[in-house]
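Sequence only, no structure available. Ideas?
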Amino acid sequence: NISNVTALDILGDVEALSEERIDTVVNMFLKDFKEDLIETKGWPNYVTAYKISKTCLNAYTRILAKRFAQFRVNSVCPGFVKSDFNCNIGIFTVEEGAKHAVTIALLPEDGPSGCFYERAQLSAF
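Reply:
I predicted one. C-alpha cells follow.
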C-alpha cells in the first residue's frame, strides 16, 4: 500500500503508463530512500522495497497486457508461501501457492488481461 500521491498518480494513469513512468516511480523511491524520507514521502514503512517492487511489477503487467493483446498477461500473489525467502514461516505450501498461479494461467483466451490476483481472486492494484 503506497500513499505517495505522485507515485499513485503516475501508476494509476493506465492510459499514460509506460516503462519510463514506472522507472520514474522507482527512481523517486530510491532518492527518498537514500535521503531517509520514506515515511515523510508516504512510502510503505514495512518491507518497503519489496512492496514497491511488487507494485511496479503489477504496473508492468498492465503495460505487457496492452502491448501483447493476443495473450492473457496477469500477475498473481500466491499468498504467504513457505519458502527459503521467509525461513519457511509462510502459511501456504508451495503446492497451494502454485495452484492459484496455474488457475490464472489457464484462464480462457477471452479471459481478463492486465489484472492482479491475490491467490485466485481478482484484486485492485
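Residues 48-67 form the longest helix (20 residues).
Hope that gets you unstuck.
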